[in-house]
């Protein structure tokens, strides 16, 4: 499946209204929760395409192996302390990126957690629900808010909110209520921001990676390489290939 990683999005003919996308080697990306799981794989795929990647980690001191795995692919990568629930981490991370490169082209809001330990909503612990909203919704919200001014200044940005199809109305109705509600809220947030930034060169979309074999997904899901591909596509996509304020899985639009 690594062969797929290097396949670039098919480029449609550009209209003069579309801002030219920066070359891959000039794009700067930030991936939250990049020390393991899908986030690490997204960092690897972006780096192997020549994108400079900041790998957000709650504990960078434990992230050496992940950082090395990305650098070994020949990419330029840096570990950055980033707990998305900590405003100070967010502020420092963005200031660091701005100071170093003066731009940020790609934000992958990947950090997330499951939080449901019981099956139904009546049994759910309110603290778990708060925990899910704190990371899956508010973490993405505040990191995105910090990044938008930088993207607006350059008239270019790609924001990918890693969501889950289980937030869709028709799916997974009785399972994981805290997770599902937090991702549904993330989806609504994605649509709201998309409207706000329409026409600014910034695309923001929600992407479901599909059930994936990670610590969160457990055994049996598909390999991270496959799941990350749809996220990487949305992170690199041109305005002619994708919309904004949409929900994708494997490059195809899915229902909210
Ligand atoms: P993992 O549990 O493997 O990894 C989660 C990552 O998020 C870790 O890097 C973790 O860091 C990080 N994280 C958690 N809380 C925070 C925080 N407060 N600040 C910064 N980072 C944080 O999960 P996956 O890789 O499977 O999941 C990645 C994303 O994909 C999530 O948003 C998830 O909801 C979504 N997803 C996953 C599916 C699956 O089947 N696996 C299906 C659908 C969606 P640390 O190591 O410090 O805990």
Structural topology:
Layout: H1 2-5, E1 28-31, H2 37-48, E2 52-57, H3 64-71, E3 77-81, H4 87-101, E4 106-109, H5 126-154, E5 157-162, H6 177-197, E6 202-207, H7 224-236, E7 247-249, E8 252-253
Helix pairs in contact: 2-3, 2-7, 4-5, 5-6
The chain binds NADPH dihydro-nicotinamide-adenine-dinucleotide phosphate.
Protein name: SDR family NAD(P)-dependent oxidoreductase
Family: Belongs to the short-chain dehydrogenases/reductases (SDR) family.
GO molecular function: oxidoreductase activity
Mind explaining what this structure looks like?
The chain is α/β, with parallel strands linked by helices. It is built from seven helices and eight strands. A hairpin with a 2-residue loop joins strand 7 and strand 8. Mean pLDDT is about 90; it is low at about 1-15. The structure holds NADPH dihydro-nicotinamide-adenine-dinucleotide phosphate. The site of NADPH dihydro-nicotinamide-adenine-dinucleotide phosphate (NDP) has 30 residues, from helix 2 and helix 5. The site of NADPH dihydro-nicotinamide-adenine-dinucleotide phosphate has 30 residues, from helix 2 and helix 5.
Distance between the termini: 28 Å
Structural class: alpha/beta
Cofactors, ions and other ligands in the entry: NADPH dihydro-nicotinamide-adenine-dinucleotide phosphate
Taken from the alpha-carbon principal axes, the silhouette is globular
Q: Strand count, sense and closure of the main sheet?
A: 8 strands, mixed
Rg, please? 17 Å
Sheet with most strands: strand arrangement: 3-2-1-4-5-6-7-8
Q: Helix tally?
A: 7
Q: Spell out the helices and strands N to C.
A: HEHEHEHEHEHEHEE
On the 0 to 100 scale, the average pLDDT is 91
Q: Give the percentage of residues in beta strands.
A: 5-15%
Which spans have pLDDT < 50 for at least 5 consecutive residues? 1-17
The share of residues in helices is: 25-40%
Number of strands: 8
């Amino acid at each position: 499946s690594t062969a797929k990683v290097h396949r670039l999005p098919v480029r449609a003919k550009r209209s003069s209204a579309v801002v030219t996308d920066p070359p891959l080697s000039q794009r700067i990306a930030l991936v939250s929760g990049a020390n393991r799981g899908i986030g690490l794989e997204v960092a690897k795929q972006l780096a192997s395409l020549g994108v400079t990647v900041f790998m957000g980690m709650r504990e960078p001191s434990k992230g050496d192996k992940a950082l090395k795995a990305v650098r070994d692919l020949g990419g330029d990568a840096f570990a950055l302390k980033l707990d998305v629930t900590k405003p100070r981490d967010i502020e420092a991370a963005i200031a660091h990126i701005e100071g170093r490169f003066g731009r940020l082209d790609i934000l992958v809001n990947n950090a997330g957690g499951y939080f449901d330990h019981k099956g139904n909503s009546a049994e759910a612990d309110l603290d778990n629900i708060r925990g899910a909203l704190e990371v899956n919704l508010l973490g993405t919200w505040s990191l995105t808010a910090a990044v938008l001014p930088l993207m607006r200044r350059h008239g270019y940005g790609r924001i990918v909110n890693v969501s889950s199809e289980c937030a869709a109305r028709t799916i997974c109705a009785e399972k994981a209520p805290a997770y599902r509600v937090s991702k549904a809220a993330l989806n609504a947030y994605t649509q709201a921001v998309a409207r706000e930034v329409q026409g600014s060169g910034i695309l923001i979309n929600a992407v479901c990676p599909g059930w994936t074999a990670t610590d969160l997904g457990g055994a049996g899901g598909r390999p991270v390489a496959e799941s990350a591909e749809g996220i990487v596509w949305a992170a690199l996509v041109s305005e002619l290939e994708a919309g904004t304020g949409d929900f994708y899985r494997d490059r195809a639009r899915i229902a909210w």
